[in-house]
Amino acid sequence: MNVARDTVVTIHYTLRNGSGEVLDSSAGGEPLAYMHGGSNIVAGLEEALDGRPVGDRFSVAVPAAKAYGEHDPGLVQQVPRRAFQAAGEVRKGMRFTAQTERGPRQVVVTHLAGDMVTVDGNHPLAGQALSFDVEIADVRDASAEEIAHGHVHGEGGHHHD
Ligand code: ZN
Q1: 152 CA to middle of ligand 1, Å?
Q2: Which fold has domain 7-68+125-149?
Q3: pTM of the model
Q4: Domain spanning 73-120: which CATH class is it, in words?
């Protein structure tokens, strides 16, 4: 069976950044199961998987625009330190949910200067070209229920109580 829209695809993968550093890998752990065609994984990886057979192994380089997007300077904000009072001491690398012009977003503190704190609401991998080494472990048809829910059930997927 080949990867196609509304199939559940199980992959082993290793994700590297542009410097070749491993950021994430399923090696030695659970493979990833996702529903193909639903934008559940980054666009460049989904495109590369399309039409491939079970057992296929390949590597793909994904530009930032087809991974987690370009780094958007509009999501970097300066916030007065007093806005963080409830959080106690503010340190570089701390994560918060912040109200932004585009709704609540996860932000990370990237810089501290005087009374001002710089927070960045971009995805941590925004602006980065990525590469994936992939092995397709399984492809099956999604069930009607999975298609209705838009996610995978059972092994490697979503579990409902
Ligand atoms: Zn469900």
Answers
A1: 7
A2: Chitinase A; domain 3 (3.10.50)
A3: 0.81
A4: mainly beta
